[in-house]
Structures are given as C-alpha cells and as structure tokens.
Amino acid sequence: MTSEPASFSSFSAAVDSINASLTYLCCSSSSSDDDSHSHHNQSYSSDVPRRFSGFAQRLRLAFNQLLRSSPSLDGFPPSVHTAVKGIAVDLAKAVETASVYRSRSKIFVLINCVSLCASLQEQTLAIFRWLTLLESAIVDLPELRKKIADLSTDMKQANLNVTESEERVYCTLQKEGQARQMQTSKAVQSAIVMDLARALGTDPENNSVLSEQIKVLKSDLGHSSSVTERRILASLERIMGNWAMEPTMATWKLNLEFEDDAHISPFKNFLCPLTKEVMKEPVVLESSQTYERAAIEYWFERCLEDGRDPTCPVTGQVLGSLELKPNIGLAGAIEEWLNRNVEIQIKIALQHLGEEPPSVNSVEKVVDNVYKISEEHPVSRYKFCSAGIVALIVKLLRNSSKSIGSNLRSKALLALLSMAKDAESKEVMLEEGTTKLAIHSLIASSEKEREYAVKLLLQFSSDEACCTKIASEKGALVLLSSMAGNLEHPALSNLAEEVLKRMERINENIQHLAAAGRFEPLLRQLCEGSDDIKIEMASIMGRMTLTNSGKEQLARQSSGILVEMLSNPAAQAASLQALYNLSSLDDNATILVDSNVLPALTDILFGYPDTLAELKELAASTLANMVSNPGHWELASADKEGHPMQSETIVYSLLSLLSRASLRCQASILHILYGIASSPQASESVASLIKSGEGIKIILPFLEHPEVQNRIYAFRLTRVLSERFGQDLVQELRASNKLSLFRDKLLDKEYKDGEKSDAACILANLSLLEDEVKILFGADFVRWTVNTLETQRRNSKGRITGPAASMLEGLLGILLHFTRSIDPLTLHAVRENRLMTIFGEQLCYPSKPRVKQLAAFGLKNLSECGRSLAARDSEPSPPHGFCSSLVFMCGRASSRPSMCPIHSAPCEEDSQWCLLKGNCIKPLVDLLTDDDTSVRIAAVEALSTLVLDTSSNFKRVVDELEESGVVDAVIHLFLEVRPGELQEKAIWMVERILRVENHNQRLSLNQALVRALVEAFKHGNPNAKRHAQDALTNLKQLSAVSGKASSQIRSRR
C-alpha cells in the first residue's frame, strides 16, 4: 500500500482530519464536540461501535505520541505521510458509520445492523494495513513502534459481529420488509414486539418507549427511497398499533358484552402472552412459559421460515426443544371458568330472546355472545342447543324478521351458521324451518345477510335429505341460480354454485333444478340413463316452461338423442313433446334440422295410418314451428327419400292429409303450408303446387271454420296464394259464391285483427271485375275503409306494425279498385272520400315500402283517370273544366277553377284527379330517393302520367315540372340507378323532357347526363336503348355514339 491517497493534498490536512475523527469516535456518551451529532442519543447502543471506539482511543494515544516525536510535520519520512493520509481517509469513513449508530433511531440501527457492522469491520482491517506501513517507517521509535504493532495485531484479529439477539431481530424485520402474501398473525406480532423490546433494552409492556422509537424511525425514513425500509416501518406501525391496544374487559370476559355482574373475570394466567386472550389449549415450553398451542406454533413456524433458532417470546431464550406439554391443571381451571360463564350467558339469552316484543339491542348482544362462544369454545354448543337457544333464535327470525332489521338478521344467521356445526343443533334448525328462512334472506338488501344465508344452506346441503328439502322450497333454486350467475359478487356466486352442485347429485332434484335453469343433471340422465330414465327426462323437458336461452341450450345438447328416441315407439310421445317445446323458439329451427328431425317427423305424420292422433298432432305442430320462418329447412331433406319440404311429394301429402286429420292437426298443417309458401326461396313453387293440387278448393272451406286457429292459418295461406294467383282464387270464390266472405269478415267486429288484415289483403289482391267492385264495395264500404284508415293513423301515432301494417296495406289495395274506372258512381266515391288526398297522405308518414308503393299506384291510377276525364270533357260545357261531368253528376257547381298547366284545362283546387292541384307531386318526388327500388318505380310511374301527352302545350307542362323539382329529381335518379326496370322508366321520362327545345339545350351541357345516356344506349335493355337513342338525338349527341350525323328527324311518334 505505497500509493498516496488522493483525499488529502497535504500531510497537515490529514493530521487535522485524524484528530477530528478520533475526537468524535472517542467521545463519551455524555459529551460531544459537535452538536450536529447529538440529534438523538449519542451513546452507542451496540457492542460493535463500542469496540471500534476502543481501537480509536488506542490509536489516538499512539498518534499523539507520533506527532510529539518530531518538532515539525515536515520531518517525517514519505512512508509516514502515506500511512497517515490513508488512516485519515478510513477514519472519515468510520465516522460516517458511527454517526448512524449515534444519531439514528435504535430500530433503524437494527434494520441495518449487518451492513453497519460490515462497514466498521472493513474500516478496521483497512486501518490495520496502514498501521503496518507506519510501523515499518518508525524504526527509531521502539516504544511507539511496539504500541502500533500491538494495535495493528489486535485490529487484524478483530471480529466485529452483531449479537445473536440483534441478528434475530434483523432477520425478522427483513422478512417484514418483504412483500408477504399473508398478513402476520397476532401471535407472531406479539413475539416480534417482545424480541424488539429486548433488543432495544426496554420492557415489552412499555408501550410509550416502543411507540417513541417507531416515531423516530419514521422521521429517519422520511426521505428514504428503500421499499424494504418503508415496508418494515408500515409493518411495525401496524404491529405496534395492535399490541398497544389494551385487552378490554369485554375481551377478558370471553369477549362477551353485558353487565359487569353477568360474568366471572378470568385470572391473568388464563391469558396467552401472545394473543392476550383466554387460552383454549395451554401448553408449556422448556422455558416454563405457557402459551396457547396455536399461537406458539405460529411463532415457531415464523422462526424457522426466517432461518433463525426458535425462541421463547417472553424470555428470549433459545429453545433446544420444540416440545409442547399440555398444561392440564391450567386447562381444567379455564374449563371450569368457561362453564360457569356459559351458564350465566344461557340465562341471559333465555331472558332476552323470550321477550315480546324483542329488544333489538339486547338480542343483538345475545346472538353476538352465542356466536363468539360457539366459535371459540365449540364444546359449549350442545349446552346452547339443550337450553333451547337455537330454537329461540329461529323463532326470532320467523316471527320478528321485519321488525329486527337486516343487521340483527345477519347476526342471527351467523350464530345459527356456527351452531349448525353441531349435529343436534342442525336437526333442531331443520325441524324449525330454518331452510325457508335462509332462502328468504337470499333476496335481502344486505350482502352480509345473503352471505350468511347461503353459507347456512351450504352447511345444510351436506345431507341428502336436506338437499331435497331445500330444492322443494319455492323459489330456492331460482334464487341460488341467479346468485351463482352474478359475477359482481364472486364470493357469493361461488358459495351458491357449491350448494347447487351438491343438489345436483340427488336425482329427485333434477326437475326442480331444470325449472331453475340448471339443465346439466337432466341432460346427463337423458344421454346416459336407461330407456325409462330417458323417457322420464324427455317428459320433464316437454312439460317445462322454458326461457328462450334455456330452449336453445337444451336444443343444442339434446336434439340428437331426442331424434334417436323417435325410433322407439314407447318413447315417441315424450320425445315429440320435448321437441315441440324446443321448436317454439325460432332460432332452434336450424339446430333441429341439423339433427335430422324432419324425416322422423314426416314419417310419423304421413306414415302408418294407425299412428295415434296425438303423435301426429305433435309432429305437425313441431314442423309448423320449424317452418314458420325462412331458414335451413329449405335445403334439408324432409323425408327418407330426400325430398325437401317444398317438394311436390310433401305438399301433396299435406293437402291429402288436411281433410282427414284431427282439428288440431289441421291447424298445424295449414300452418306448415303457410310457412313454406311464405318462404322467399320456396314461395313460388309451393304456391304453384298448391294450385295444381287443387289446394285452393281444399283450403277455402277452412276460411269459415269454427276453430280460430284453423281459420287464422287458412286466411294467412289464402293471402299468400292471392298474391300470385289472384285470378284463380277469384274464380274459385265465384264458383262457391264466397266473394263477399272477406268483406263481411272486415265488417264483423267479432273477428280478430289478424284475420281482418288478411281478409283486406286478399280483397286487395283479387282480380275483380268492374261490376264486382260495385257490388262488393258500395259507397258505404268505401266510406268505412277511409274512416278505418283515418282511425288507424290517429291511433298509431306514426308507428304501425304487425296486423295493423297488414291492414293498412289491404285497405289501400281495396281503394285501388276504385282508381281504375271512370264510372260516375266510382268517380263520385273518389271525390266524396277524397282518395287522392288519402293516397298522398300515406306518402308523408313513415311506413313500410309496400304501403308507399300502393299509395303511389293509387296516385298513378287517379292521374290517368284525370287525363281520361280531361280528354272526354275536351268540348266545353258549363260548368267548365274536365270535372264537369262529376260536378253535373253530383248536382253541385263550384266557382270557376283556374287553368291547369298539366291538363291544359281548368282544374279545381284540391282536385282528386290532378297530381298538381292535389299537392301530390312533391311527396312523389321525395319517393325517388327511397331505399326500396319498387317504391321508386311506382313513384316514377305516377310522375310519368304527367308527361304522357306531348302534343299541345307540352313545354308548359315540362316548365311546371321543372319548377316543382321533378326534372332535376328524375335526371338525378337516372344518373344513379343501374340498368333495369327503374332505369328504363326513368330514361323514358328523361327522353320526354328532352323533347322541349329550351330544356334540351340547357341539359346538353350536362356531361354526366350525356355519359349516362351513352352507357344506357350501349348496355341497357332494348327499351332503354331506344329511349337513350331518342334522348341523345334530342340533345344532338347521337353522332358521339353511332358515328353518324345527328341531324335525324324524330317522327317516330
């Protein structure tokens, strides 16, 4: 060690530093040269710094003698300079460590005692090496050399270590500084306090000293960044807080809460030094100290976990043996004391539980005491039961549940829960009806009450008979299932789930569990049980009232086995009933079809003639449910030969069976036919098969069937057929003289709305002759139709759904019959009932596309009638206007109307044949942007009636249409649509508009329009191409398409 330390630039500075360091290290506990080091107690509480201080005193004497040996500091050789400077550096480091011992709290020193000790040990060895160099440099001073040599030898051999007590406390505190998953037990906390007090040299019962040390530690750690140190502080504060709480008299009195004379106080030696509670199993250590067995075992485990020798917490003695000897004498004394106190508590409990009405405060103390004694001293449970305390608590819950409040109910349930661990007490509870009381508490507002209630049921469910009893209680399984599925309270959910799992083991509970939505036991028996068990499970499934989610779950997991059961004659009835129940959910149709149920059902329906009618009814009803909506059944095989439901074989079989089946089966067959005929995929083929199989003739009698269901589905099916075969249907009705049937149905108040709406739609779809319209729909019926539309509009408040929507479609369709004739009576009905206004209003309300389409068709027909009337009345006769015949017919005259630019004739304001005067052009223009193509087509057709006549005054017509926004709207529509019917009708109107010179000149600049016309000319259908050619000719753009001259003469029309 010949290199000179860089910490001191001069020998004199090193000498000054050594003197200052030695002065600090050698000062006594009663004095200090620097007030900054007296922040706390300046004495060394540990042996390690005291030993190092002894070395410092000897070094001080030797160093002073060295300085006196030379009159000048410059007289020492370089090696002395080097050694002195090295000693100065290491002494400064030692001062830093010693200052921690002197200025920081004793607990802080204990927390860091190992690192502090290692630091002083390191400085001791470093100074020893500098002393060796110094010894070799002062050969001419033998006395001083010997002192330094002795000091050097002693420092070399010094072994600075913490004491065993300090090391134990250090290990314990470091463990507290770790992130522990479990909180330290009360017993271990008490032992830690005792160990810490011994290390600090104070009495464990001196709470003020211990608390003050922890406060000082908190101050020391104010700016500490060590997570471990902060955890230790938090742990010590918590431990000290628990230790500082003096055991109250209530705790010393068995933790009981009553008058002072209602107990016998325990002796002090009854209390465990660690738990401060009366011991239940006192044991003696080899140190002769007595503890609660569980408490001292916790402490031993902690010692072994910390890697230290187990000690006696009170004495600190290291134990050579962990043997725990029962303190029999003390245990007997405690038992005698306990029995006498329990007898006192029983008397008090009987007194307060028997009061009417009960005193809530007193009863609350009683049940608290019953619970505490039951938990802490289980052997006392039989005494409470024998004294009738259990029965009285149950009676309290049964008779005074509402008056005592949720808090007392919770405590009463908790006491019963503890007492239920005793077999006799449990039997008493069951006899007194505790299960029903616990079930009622499952819906309590208090989470604690619900928790204790479900725990009590869990305790009861360990017995099979109790499980059956709980399951039979009304609402029990529903409440438990709801609780088990409530993940907001996972603890309660897990408890309820455990109760339910125990109940699932009992076969008698299967039906109750299934009714509550617990299907696993039922499905397990259905799949794994014997044939008889399977039939029983299927019967249960067929009888149950299921939720939609329940139906779906059962269908997914049981449809396959149910279909297999249909091959067993004995199981058919039960299986069919179950399948029918499951098929009532529309979404299950695909699941059942995938399980190949259709062939099995049609085999029962069409198969053996001796099959029971009930089975056929169930098979037909299940099929009806499955085909109620379009779905997977359209592609599936419906019989063993692979025919689908919409095949000729199936349809003809259904029609054949219809006339000879039972009433219920007939309704289902009609339902099936309606379902498959309503499917978008199968509608056309099924309707054709029904027609070819004389189905119309077979179905019509059911329209007057006395059974409501048969009649309803007959009407629905007839409505579907009328949409495709209105002409054939009307012929059959004429032949059977039943044309008036549907009108009568509409007017009859006894029939349901569904039948009436179907009747209205059928009437609308029939291809009636003009005379038939007059006969069926007189003026009164038209008035009734219009009034019904108005009433429906008022009642719906703009929202029409279900049968009302169908009725609206039907009534509008009926009114359409009056828009196709210019017969005077018909014209009178149109004028009298303001049909154009009715149709126009329907365009202004939110409604289905079909309603808008029918209204647009009505406006189209009326507009065409108006043009016919205008042409017929072209010769003027008073009163003026094309409505003159109507005015004459009605026998009243009106003021002279203004000239109509559309008809080139006077039209009355609010005319029922003129779209312009009837204010119907704007609603029709708005329809051009509708999402439904059929609605837009109908609107274009209605607007097209305005440009039919291009002879005279056509320019004025187009000018009026442009002002009304029709021109721009139609052109925009043409630019947006794809090739097809809508494009064809739009381009027809565009071509008509372009015949007007000033408009074609303006629009010829519209390059988008020109491009669209070119595309239509190239890719449209023949009509669209022809119209596009004419339009381009009008725009003088034809050469751009054909390459020919555009000077063609339009003389086609």
From TrEMBL:
Gene3D superfamilies: Leucine-rich Repeat Variant (1.25.10.10), Zinc/RING finger domain, C3HC4 (zinc finger) (3.30.40.10). It catalyses: S-ubiquitinyl-[E2 ubiquitin-conjugating enzyme]-L-cysteine + [acceptor protein]-L-lysine = [E2 ubiquitin-conjugating enzyme]-L-cysteine + N(6)-ubiquitinyl-[acceptor protein]-L-lysine. InterPro entries: ARM-like, ARM-type_fold, Armadillo, HEAT_type_2, RING-Ubox_PUB, U-box_domain_protein, Ubox_domain, Znf_RING/FYVE/PHD. HEAT repeats lie at residues 920-953. Keywords: Coiled coil, Repeat, Transferase. It comes from the Eukaryota. Pathway: Protein modification; protein ubiquitination. The keyword Transferase applies. One of its GO terms (biological process) is protein ubiquitination. It is an enzyme of class 2 (transferase). Residues 141-168 form a coiled coil. This is RING-type E3 ubiquitin transferase.
